[in-house]
Amino acid sequence: MIIAGEGRLAGRHLTILGMGYSARALARLALAEGAHVSATTRDATKAEALRREGIDILAPAQTGALALDAMDDTTDLLVSAPPGPEGCPAYELAARALANAGRLGWIGYFSSTAVYGDCGGEWIDESRPPAPRSPDAKARLIAEDIWQEAARRHGAACDILRISGIYGPGRNHLAALRAGGLHVVDKPGQVFNRIHRDDIAGATLAAMLSLAAGERLINLADGNPCSSVDLLCGLADMLGLPLPVVVPYDPAALSPGMAAFFAESRRLRNDRMLALPGFVMCYPDWRAGYRAILAEE
């Protein structure tokens, strides 16, 4: 949590490449802080809704890239778009316009804690050397390098925000549990962190408000990793629903994506995130986060 609405971003122009779930929450905080916000999105319906919220939509020119003057006034740039197989399509979209962004002072990149690979359940922090295993994690590491280099060329601060499992309103396990028939995989020793969407937005805003010279790596994660069994059975108990069926881990019975998820285990420290000036987590564990989601319902 960071209290918004004090005008601390007045005079700043935040451009967001890829208006995803968490980036949209940040956009609302930035608007409340007095920033001018622009964004890209491929969804026409979403674009219209964003305009109604006061967000300008940047549309690619006929070349497929942003117009040369699209980012002339941008002071802050958040990259929330997913990477491609060999890098970052968002950089290809913005590279020409970025060259003219003379006011740019900060670049933030939404990466993933998957870049650490399998850590055998050990507690790790940002000093852990990346060892990505999945294609997406490898691409995110390449994209991190691309945006760090872009920040160096501009003399801008750069925050690489490595995000753990995201949840929040409209993106959670409630519907699956209420539908019944859910199976949860039990792999002894496998744990993971998560983070509520609003804490991602709050931590990102805090980073924007406390620019550091050069580059920072920051894990965005709760401090309470747990297993899938603990999470889903605990949530079912919170809802007063029957417990999901627990099945033993069998990689042959899982989709490739789920098999890749269960092949890795790590416990993430979040000390750097908690040290951001003015930032306090709203939801330091899944119980606090889901109580808030249920209260909103």
Fraction in helix: 25-40%
What CATH calls the topology of the domain at 13-169 and 195-223 and 269-282 is: Rossmann fold
Rg: 20 Å
Q: How many helices does DSSP assign?
A: 10
- Provide the residue-averaged pLDDT: 95
Strand neighbour order, sheet with most strands: 3-2-1-4-5-7-11
* Structural class determined from secondary elements: alpha/beta
The CATH superfamily of the domain at 13-169 and 195-223 and 269-282 is known as NAD(P)-binding Rossmann-like Domain
Fraction of residues in β-strands: 15-25%
Counted beta strands: 13
Tell me, briefly, the overall form.
Answer: globular
| Sheet having the most strands | 7 strands, parallel
Keywords: NAD
Domain NAD-dependent epimerase/dehydratase: 109-212
InterPro entries: Epimerase_deHydtase, NAD(P)-bd_dom_sf
Protein name: Nucleoside-diphosphate-sugar epimerase
Task: Give an account of the 3D structure.
The structure is a single chain. The two termini are 20 Å apart. With 297 residues, this protein is of the alpha/beta class. It is 35% helix and 18% strand. The model has no long low-confidence stretch (mean pLDDT 95). The chain has a domain at 13-169 and 195-223 and 269-282: Rossmann fold, CATH 3.40.50. It has helices at residues 21-32, 44-52, 89-98, 135-154, 174-179, 197-209, 228-239, 256-262, 271-274, 286-296, and strands at residues 13-17, 36-40, 56-57, 76-79, 106-112, 123-124, 157-163, 165-167, 183-186, 194-196, 215-220, 245-248, 267-268. It has a 7-stranded parallel beta sheet, sandwiched between helices. Strand 1 (13-17), helix 1 and strand 2 (36-40) form a beta-alpha-beta unit. The chain contains 10 helices and 13 strands. Keywords: NAD. It comes from Pontibaca methylaminivorans. Residues 109-212 form the NAD-dependent epimerase/dehydratase domain. This is Nucleoside-diphosphate-sugar epimerase.
